[in-house]
Amino acid sequence: MEDDITSEEDPIRGRPKEIPHNEKLLSLKYESLDYDNIENQLFLEEERRMSHMGFRCLEISRWVICGLIGILTGLIACFIDIMVEKLAGCKYQVIKENIEKFTEVGGLSISLILWAVLNCAFVLVGGVMVAFFEPIAAGSGIPQIKCYLNGVKIPRVVRLKTLVVKVFGVICSVAGGLAVGKEGPMIHSGAVVAAGVSQGRSTSLKRDLKVRKNKQNEYEGASFWNQMLTWRIFFASMISTFTLNFFLSIYHGKPGDLSNPGLINFGRFESDSVAYYYYEIPLFMCMGALGGLLGALFNALNYWLTIFRIRYVHRPCLQVMEALLVAAVTAAVSFTMIYFSNDCQPLGPEHNEEYPLQLFCADGEYNSMATAFFNTPERSVRSLFHNQPGSYNPLTLGLFTLTYFFLACWTYGLAVSAGVFIPSLLIGAAWGRLCGILLASFTPTSPVGIWADPGKYALIGAAAQLGGIVRMTLSLTVIMVEATGNVTYGLPIMLVLMIAKIVGDYFEEGLYDIHIKLQSVPFLHWEAPATSHWLTAREVMSSPVTCFNRIEKVGTIVDVLSNTSTNHNGFPVVVQVLDSDEPAKLCGLILRSQLIVLLKHKVFVELARSRLSQRKLQLKDFRDAYPRFPPIQSIHVSQDERECMMDLTEFMNPTPYTVPQDTSLPRVFKLFRALGLRHLVVADDVNRVIGLVTRKDLARYHLGKHGLEELQLAQT
Amino acid sequence: MFPYNLYLFFVFVAIYVPSLKCGDVVHLSDSESADKLEAVPSLSNAAVSSPVFKPAVDTVFSFSVLSSFPEDLEVSDYCSDLLHIFGQRYVAYVNCLVPAARPVKVCQSCYSTYGSVVEIYKNISSDQMGPGNETCRDSLLRSDRLMLVYQLYSNLESLWEDSNCAQCVTGHFESLTNDTLYFMSTLNQTLTCFEKYQQGNHTELCKNCKSAYGTLNVLYSQMEKNSTLCIDIEDAMNMTRRLWSKNFNCSFPREENVPVIAVSSFMLFLPIIFYLSSFLHSEQKKRKLIHPRRAKSNTSLMNIQDKLS
């Protein structure tokens, strides 16, 4: 048995093995964030110097920053909202006029082409921006933010450039008629703003604000940390909602009317249509199960598509082309649906369709397929929720659900910035409304007012579908209740989301989790895999560890840091007792970033001796370098300097967390997750370093179909 | 017929109850009341002190209404006169409304009667002192829980608002607006055209009346934009459109199936080519596996499974 293993492993060791991309990989390009305070001597000194007043100011400045973040996020959301409305309005107006013209004289295929071309033009702009300038801005951004909150440093995810690309990208893709929403990108941009504003503040502050990116509605991550923080996040999101309302009210010409509800707003349900009865709850639960099933199907299809995309459609020009094709097909399918639809309905008294299309309907009536397709998705959701009974016939809704399901599934994962919230709500609202209509038609004897309103079934269906696709129960309940401004449905929505999640999880993971996995991100879940108690730190850790002596030669440090094959970030510092054979003992931990700053400022023992007047390095120097530490290559160290020595005592973290080597994996996991660690030293009984546990060591274990499985590390 | 009768019956009761106390009693059966309605005296010769009707259930009524209150609590003559006039005008308006319900002509035919109701109500509700230094506002409008006069009037008012008649009638209920009149004449032209070609082939009608119908449509949408529509115009337009589209079948036929299908299936075909070609020609992205440094004894998944077994 032993022989088999070694003979199998040998050829692998010889040359790096190449395999096609799959979900069971961990990428090397992701690093952890440093949440842990480094309590070195500099830190202690600074704390001593800081007065009581200083702490007060810090507290106040946190609140001010929260307010600032809220305002900026609100402004951005407002900008996106207005731009989308304007651009999409122009587009639909042009197409509508064109269609009206050609209905009369013939040549509707030209309108179809016009629609496709307009769609493509918008998507081209958005796609080029994303694919060529900032690929990280693709998608909804929620998976990335989720990773960031988890403590994984995704390169460039919170840069200004990403923000700009994201904002304009999402405007283009929504105006381009893709089956996408703008909410995920809005959350992402809120996160970027939060990170941007908080930069350059004190270290303790930074840690708080990292967490704050769960802007608009994601309370899940935040509630894990402390209460004050949750409260501040809540404050920030309220401020941003307020700002959004304030500016939208000005835009709509009613300055000061702040009740115009927030980001996702589906309008208020009228009081008589919200009534529900106890016997409807089982029905709602069935719809929840259906939502879970459909969500799982959606996720499975999207999973295969995404794998295909990663493997074969990886060049930017191909990605842009794919996005264009999707845009064109979306237009073609929508147009065909509208063209062949026989469902004509008169406009209701308080209709909110801005672009009704008549086509072949009788005068005074309008194509009801067009109210669903010929509109921005958000408006379509609103009309599905609120249009009076009878404004859609079941065939229309069925066809719409089917096509939109596949379109949305196909669209998510393209190289455009686009969220999946609104499309899934739309799918759910369509089949939910269908359920409502069918129920009403099967039970003609029941009291009319109860079954008759399909709007509430649309709401429940939307919740079920959203829950089935993204599986975030807590935040979704909050979002749905907020978006409809309706607490009456709190319990049904919660039940539906829960059931959708349970049913969906049985078949397939949530969409965001799938994408996190496919990006090979070392993501730590809440708990260690269930059957992993027999694994100990000895098996989990990386070993041997590259250590530094407390007084180390500069040359050695530079060599280790420049070694590209081992891109380590934390180095245990050991002390060798002179004149003894005893092995070196652990005395601290130092980070790559600190070493680079030290090298840059040339804090060498010899130099310190010769130049006594030299300014002492302060914590501020380290902070100034954040967050973009220069790479080691940019630091020039001369041949003479290589011979100098560097004293790390003052800068290293003298009390790193350690565990004995027999600690079980779940214990290590808990430490990591709760403390936000980046490195955990494994020491033996005499405090010798025998290994180092990092995030990737833990994240590689996961519970697969055949029990515990191990992910492989790969270069991506 | 029944609900209509019943409604009027109640209206009458409402209006004539105050005058019943005078003691004059006229018998009138339910069925007669409808006929009598036509003969409601015009406003000018309304003889205030001689009520004409009395409900059939006189025995009960006469008891309750004949007992009267002391002088100072009762409604003055002036006010009861006003009330009486209000009643007559009210009846006249309702009388006008009902026959105009279908096809809707409530604005065209009843605007002047509505104007008179508004006028008398204004008098009732105004602050101005009448003869004898009294206002009827308090005594007629809000001395009881029911506030019947007020409710009756506000019903009419909301009807008027719902029907949007104000858009078609000049400010003081003198006449219809010019827009409305113009629309009506255009509508008449179209309808004459329809009548002319109604016999025989409808395609002929579609061709010949298209311009008239088109002008009407344009005019209508223009008025819609200016929001000068009232229910009369909306209804007339709806009927015309229904005639045009459903009866004469003149809406646009769906003729371009082939080009539309061709173009859209071409577009549907493109992604298939795209995915196939990128599957065949684009090189697959490979990942280089990296082997982490581990403690010697336990490295691979193999060992996990060994341990488990």
TrEMBL record, chain A:
Key words of the record: CBS domain, Chloride, Ion transport, Membrane, Repeat, Transmembrane, Transmembrane helix, Transport
UniProt domain CBS: residue ranges: 652-710
InterPro entries per UniProt: CBS_dom, CBS_dom_sf, CIC-7, Cl-channel/antiporter, Cl-channel_core, ClC
Q: Provide the transmembrane region boundaries.
A: 60-84, 105-133, 233-251, 281-305, 317-340, 397-422, 458-481, 488-507
Cited PROSITE patterns: CBS
**GO MF annotations in UniProt:** chloride channel activity; chloride:proton antiporter activity
Family assignment from sequence similarity = Belongs to the chloride channel (TC 2.A.49) family.
What is the protein's given name?
Answer: Chloride channel protein
Which organism is this entry from?
Neolamprologus brichardi (Fairy cichlid)
The top of its lineage is: Eukaryota, Metazoa, Chordata, Craniata, Vertebrata
UniProtKB/TrEMBL annotation, chain B:
Q: Which InterPro entries match?
A: Osteopetrosis-assoc_TM_1 (IPR019172)
Q: Which GO terms describe its cellular component?
A: cytosol
Where would you find the membrane-spanning parts of this chain?
258-280
Tell me which Pfam families the record gives.
Answer: OSTMP1
Where is the secretion signal located? 1-22
Determine if Nucleotidyltransferase is one of this entry's keywords: no
Which key words are in the record?
Answer: Membrane, Signal, Transmembrane, Transmembrane helix
Protein name, per record:
Osteoclastogenesis associated transmembrane protein 1
